């Protein structure tokens, strides 16, 4: 059977039999891979801890009929324990890996892999408030998938902005002429925060207040779930409390 090597981040795991585990990975070169890690649930397993969610590993696998098999795993980035120690970071990370799992269902994207690894690294280091890191990840991941939101020009007719009506079904803010009756308006600070999260302007994002972050998070969540066409189960558990100091 063909053997290949790649690096990957663990999205989720499932028990298989008494000692094995099915590991779903987003890899750098092969996209999403589902593989069996044999014996990893035994106490003496050499690489069981390297295949926990949010971990990044250098892997050797061989192709199977339905599932590949992991032969070796060497840790490249140990984000799992650092993220799990903080509730806000942990809940944000679970949304990220669920989103990555769905966005890469039929697409091999190096950019999605690099974005996810970078976001998990930021969570583990507490570079920014966990809710900001999550919302930035969601907006960027959707942009890479072809659903880039507009937070300035009209998302429908491209009329020059700024505009304040927010319609997730149309792709972002829209002008008065394109706005459906009753569509909500966003205040300028919320639009500025959403734009900064999309472009990576962390000076603006880190300076935002709690109320603005809460409104922006609601937009990011609604936009994500609309374009994924299905809910994110993990989103209900996200901690939106401030975790920075």
UniProtKB/TrEMBL annotation:
Domain DNA replication/recombination mediator RecO N-terminal: 1-79
Keywords: DNA damage, DNA recombination, DNA repair
Statement: the UniProt record of this protein carries the keyword Glycoprotein: no
SUPFAM superfamilies: ArfGap/RecO-like zinc finger, Nucleic acid-binding proteins
InterPro entries xref list: ARFGAP/RecO (IPR037278), DNA_rep/recomb_RecO_N (IPR022572), NA-bd_OB-fold (IPR012340), RecO (IPR003717), RecO_C (IPR042242)
Gene Ontology cellular component terms for the protein in this record: bacterial nucleoid
Pfam families reported for this sequence: RecO_C, RecO_N
Domain of life where this protein originates: Bacteria
Listed GO biological process terms: DNA recombination; double-strand break repair
Function text: Involved in DNA repair and RecF pathway recombination.
Similarity remark: Belongs to the RecO family.
Protein's recorded name: DNA repair protein RecO
Species this chain originates from: Mycetocola manganoxydans
Lineage, broadest ranks: Bacteria, Bacillati, Actinomycetota, Actinomycetes, Micrococcales
